[in-house]
Amino acid sequence: MTLWQIILLASIAVLALKLVGFLVPPRVLETPTAARTANLTTVALLSALIVVQTVSAGQQLVLDARLPALVIAAGLLAVRAPFILVIVAAAAFAALLRMLGWAA
Question: Helix, strand or coil for residue 36?
Fold first, then answer.
């Protein structure tokens, strides 16, 4: 099976799953459990994406300037700093580490 066949099959599966979602009665989706599950799933998927993008390059585990920058960003978010400040500070910290050669 080629890569394009896999992509096509995955696209069809996602579309089918979305169409099945329309068959679920609205009263099921309005329950607190369903709403909470949807919210937590979104957070979990976003967190997983951030971790994968931070510590991997292709199939390899890579620990470079992205990880300390993520720690800086998490710390600033914890103290409720403005989002633009979080982004600029994390990028500047990663750039500083790379300039110093500590985390290529």
Answer: helix
Render pLDDT for 38-68 as a digit per residue (tens, 0 to 9).
Answer: 889 999 999 999 888 888 888 888 888 899 9
CA distance 69 to 74: 9
| Residue whose structure tokens are 């967190």 | 47
Predicted TM-score (pTM) of this structure? 0.62
Dist. CA 67–CA 74, nearest whole Å: 11
Class of residue 65 by CB neighbours under 10 A (exposed 0-12, middle 13-18, buried 19+): buried
Give the Cα separation of 91 and 80 in Å (integer): 18
